[in-house]
Amino acid sequence: MKRNINAVLLLIMTMAACSAPKKEQSFVEKTESAHQKSAFLDKEAVRFDLALKFGGKERLNGTITLLTNSSKGLIEYGDSSKIMYVKDQVYYSPDITNTKGVRFDAYTWSYFFLLPHKLSDGGTKLSPYENSTLNGETFDTHKLTFAPGTGDAPDDWYVLYSNKETHLLETAAYIVTAGKTKEEAEADPHAISYADYTEIDGVPIAQTWSFWGWKEDKGLTEQLGEATLKNIQFVEVDSNFFTPPPSFLTIE
Q1: What does pTM read for this prediction?
Q2: Residue % of the chain over a pLDDT of 90
Q3: Which of 80, 150, 200, 222 lies 20 to 30 Å from 252, alpha-carbon distance?
Q4: pLDDT tens-digit map of 160-219
Q5: Three-class SS of 59-72
Q6: In the predicted model, what is the mean pLDDT of the chain?
């Protein structure tokens, strides 16, 4: 009898271990499917104009071009200065004299844009997040973390809120560890909300972002910033488009 009980317990544990990843994978599959990830990756590159403000002050105004596989990106500012990244290397034009935010800008805004398509990237880990209510609404929720050594900020994390009916990503709470310890970042978490989705060649893309303070027990608090995306289009680029000119500098 004891042997039979142990066998039953082993079976239950095995079934539980198998069912959890399926639940997490279901969240990823539903979200990436809603965002038409396959159609997105069938395109070579995407380009859009981004006007970003924090605290009422302009933070970025320019054009961003990204390979859909996220390996390369270019920000062209309105004053003709440029930032480019090629995998883990960042380049910038010499007319940028304040380099403090160069690496942050190179990766952050592109990641916010690409986030719905990056949930199953190598090094990502999705786990259930039990608090599915955000400011009175209920969502499908999961927490996104990263394996050590993944990307530029592996200690960052995101709490993802997707619409229960459309499965489109509506909000992502997050921490930014750039220049901070993880503990410092977790003392001041933020969130980005995605709105005004429009289909570009069959791919839904949010045309409005809003940035908020976020508390686990309170949800979205004060609004911190906002952004609009215009002239969104899928494009093809020539082989030299992401080759930095000889005058560009690099930053670690």
Answers
A1: 0.89
A2: 85
A3: 80
A4: 999 999 999 999 999 999 888 999 999 999 999 999 999 999 999 999 999 999 999 999
A5: EEEEEEEEECCCCE
A6: 90
DSSP state of 57: E
Task: Say how many C-beta atoms besides its own lie within 10 A of residue 99's C-beta.
Answer: 12
Q: What secondary structure, in 3-state letters, does 85-118 show?
A: EECCEEEECCCCCCCCCHHHHHHHHHHHHHHHHC
Spatial CA neighbour of 45 closest among 16, 20, 71, 79: 71
**For residue 135, what are its two tokens?**
């400011």
Identity of the amino acid at 48:
F
Interacting residues of 188 by C-beta distance below 8 A, sequence separation 6+: 175, 213
How far apart, in whole angstroms, are the C-alpha atoms of residue 18 and residue 13? 9
Task: Count Cα neighbours of 167 within 13 Å in the Cβ-side half-sphere.
Answer: 13
Q: Is the pLDDT of residue 10 over 50?
A: no
- Helix residue spans in the chain (DSSP H): 2-34, 37-42, 102-114, 182-186
**Which of these, 68, 71, 70, 95, lies nearest to 83 by C-alpha position?**
95
Distance separating alpha carbons of residues 213 and 193, to the nearest angstrom: 11
User: Is residue 250 classed exposed, middle or buried when 0-12, 13-18 and 19+ CB atoms within 10 A define those classes?
Assistant: exposed
